Amino acid sequence: MLAIIVTSHGEFARGILQSAEMIFGKAQRVLAVTLAANESVEDLANHYQAAIESMEPITELLFLVDLWGGSPFNAASRVVAQNPDKYGLVAGLNLPMLIEALSIQDQSLADVIPHLERTARGGVRHLDLRADTGDDDLL
């Protein structure tokens, strides 16, 4: 089963994991790791290492991070670079992405990553009540 680390600036990772579990149910082999305002990227890398050790043995690991290029991303990319065949990283964390990741945890990392990219994009939509979209059943 794919292990997942959900990570963010501040408490976002814990909150979104809690929300996902309200919808999906209790997650297995999933941990939230957060970066506090007074912590460094090195501190976060140490948190990642502790999380990984607590979930061992790991066959594959996916990092879901809040923001491309931010500190959680940078620290996770260093970890992924040490084991690119078993570890992956997807940025732009949102609730549909996380719920989908939980539902396909039994699949391979190579299959999960492109699927999550599509799911996350599909999770961004708007309701346009001014146009006749045929979605009248939404109201």
Explain this structure to me?
This protein has 139 residues and is of the alpha/beta class. The chain has one domain: Rossmann fold (3-Layer(aba) Sandwich). It has five helices and four strands. The protein has a four-stranded parallel β-sheet with strand order 2-1-3-4, sandwiched between helices. Strand 1, helix 1 and strand 2 form a beta-alpha-beta unit. Helix 1 crosses helix 4, helix 2 crosses helix 3 and helix 4 packs antiparallel against helix 5. The chain is globular, with a radius of gyration of 16 Å. The protein starts with a strand and ends in a 17-residue tail after the last helix. The mean pLDDT is 92. GO terms for molecular function: kinase activity; phosphotransferase activity, alcohol group as acceptor. Its main location: cytoplasm. Keywords: Cytoplasm, Kinase, Phosphoprotein, Phosphotransferase system, Sugar transport, Transferase, Transport. This is PTS mannose transporter subunit IIA. It comes from Levilactobacillus koreensis.
Kindly list the characteristics that best describe this protein:
single chain; 139 residues; alpha/beta; Rossmann fold; four-stranded parallel β-sheet; 4 strands
Shape descriptor reads globular
Structural class of the secondary structure composition?
Answer: alpha/beta
Mean pLDDT level: 92
What is the CATH architecture assignment?
3-Layer(aba) Sandwich
Largest sheet: 4 strands, parallel
What is the CATH C-level name? Answer: Alpha Beta
DSSP strand tally: 4
What percentage of the residues does DSSP assign to strands (E)?
15-25%
Q: Please report the number of helical segments.
A: 5
Provide the succession of SSEs.
EHEHEHEHH
Kindly identify the CATH topology.
Answer: Rossmann fold
Stretches with pLDDT under 50, minimum 5 residues: none
The figure for the number of domains is 1
Side-by-side strand order of the widest sheet: 2-1-3-4
What is the radius of gyration computed over CA atoms, rounded to a whole number of angstroms? 16 Å
Distance between the termini: 40 Å
- Approximately how much helix is present in the residues? 40-55%
Q: Which homologous superfamily in CATH is the superfamily?
A: Phosphotransferase system, mannose-type IIA component
Subcellular location: Cytoplasm
Protein name: PTS mannose transporter subunit IIA
InterPro entries: Bacterial_PTS_sugar_comp, PTS_EIIA_man, PTS_EIIA_man-typ, PTS_EIIA_man-typ_sf, PTS_IIA_man
Main location: cytoplasm
